[in-house]
Amino acid sequence: MNACSRPRILIARAVFPEIVDRLALHFEVEANAPDDIWPRAEFIRRLQGKQGVFTTGGERIDAELLAACPDLRICANMAVGYNNFDVPAMTAAGVLATNAPGVLTETTADMGFALLMAAARRVAESEHFLRAGKWDRWAYDMLIGQDVHGSTLGIIGMGRIGQAIARRGALGFGMKVIYHNRSRLPEADEAAVGARYVGKDELLKTADHVMLVVPYSKESHHTIGAAELALMKPTATLVNIARGGIVDDAALAQALREGRIAAAGLDVFEGEPRVHPDLLTVPNVVLTPHIGSATVPTRRAMAALAADNLIGYLTQGKPVTPLNPEVMAAGT
Ligand code: GLV
Fold first, then answer.
1. Ligand 1 pocket check for 80: Cβ under 6 Å
2. Using a 6 Å cutoff on CB, does residue 162 contact ligand 1?
3. Which atom number of ligand 1 is nearest to the Cα of residue 79?
4. Helices (DSSP H) in 134-262: which residue ranges?
5. DSSP codes of every residue in 41-103
């Protein structure tokens, strides 16, 4: 195949140089080494004549963009979540969507526990207290928190990551694990991860710690708002490692400020990278900038999987993790 006939792809954000080099073995690549955030019109302009795009979860792919980019055949997300994709519009346009499931499961579950531990044991508040020079004595109630081991963990969303969190809770921390999900797991899977299915209200009322791992959709928008927070125990913590918009951040900030729940750990935010200003001023919340999958091996594996999808589909018609395989069946 001569260089001119090779498919052309766009890499929307900076990624590991070796991934760019690997893609360049197969494609004419336009990369984004400076990691500019292109305005949408520029993104669409750069997509002209491209058959593939490597996205990272922040680039919206919808009917309007697809109509403006008729050469596009595949969008490969370097993320397991794909709420930036309008998959039905992509299917209608004959464009394949792929995501990066599996490779980040354990790393993201670790992050859920990091935030849970930090929130329940007030790790971030304690660090700020110490750095501010406020530690001048021992006190029986200084920065006193809640136990994680032996408590009841409520997981909302029981996909791969939810199940990895359940295993950590049940096997590692001796927790009683309850969960709520659109559909109940088969009994054998429940037994394998040590979790019991309950209704959402029961979970919120019973859990000492609530962990959100549900994908974002119109249906899951504000899964946790003022009414749900009101059901939780005043000693409870809430952890969101799923997506911004699953929690009503303003209602959460108010609940934290009023001590209606004890603490929260958030890795994702409505309208990120902006963070609701009220969250920045309440002390009992640990805030991290969407780093759930951010370890070197996992980010490498996610980028490699997105690259495998582009290479597999554009060179052999065989993507690894397609979201709308019907596009291939339709022969488009
Ligand atoms: C990260 O948020 C992902 O969806 O992979």
1. yes
2. no
3. 5
4. 160-167, 187-193, 200-206, 226-231, 249-257
5. HHHHHHHTT-SEEEE-S-S-B-HHHHHH-TT--EEEESSS--TTB-HHHHHHTT-EEE---ST
Instruction: Specify the pLDDT at position 4.
Output: 58
Q: Which ligand 1 atom sits closest to the C-alpha of 290?
A: 2
CB 81 less than 6 A from any atom of ligand 1:
yes
Q: What is the distance in A from the centroid of ligand 1 to the CA of 306?
A: 13
Burial of 3 (0-12, 13-18, 19+ CB in 10 A): exposed
Q: How far is the CA of 5 from the centre of ligand 1 (A)?
A: 33
Catalytic positions, written as ranges:
243, 272, 290
pLDDT at residue 243 in the model: 97
Place of tokens 């397991």: 80
Q: Over the stretch 215-267, which tens digit does the pLDDT of each residue have?
A: 999 999 999 999 999 999 999 999 999 999 999 999 999 999 999 999 999 99
Look over the chain and give the mean of its residue pLDDT values, rounded to a whole number. Answer: 97
What angle (nearest 5°) sits at the alpha carbon of residue 73, between those of residues 5 and 305?
95
- Find out whether the beta carbon of 104 lies less than 6 Å from any atom of ligand 1: yes
Q: How many A from CA of 293 to the centre of ligand 1? A: 7
What is the pLDDT, as a whole number, of residue 5? 85
Q: Which residue has the tokens 């499931």?
A: 101
Q: What pLDDT, in 10s, does the model give residues 102-143?
A: 999 999 999 999 999 999 999 999 999 999 999 999 999 999
What would the mean pLDDT of 87-109 be, rounded to a whole number? 98
CA of 305 to the centre of ligand 1 (A): 13
Give burial (CB, 10 Å; 0-12/13-18/19+) of 4. Answer: exposed
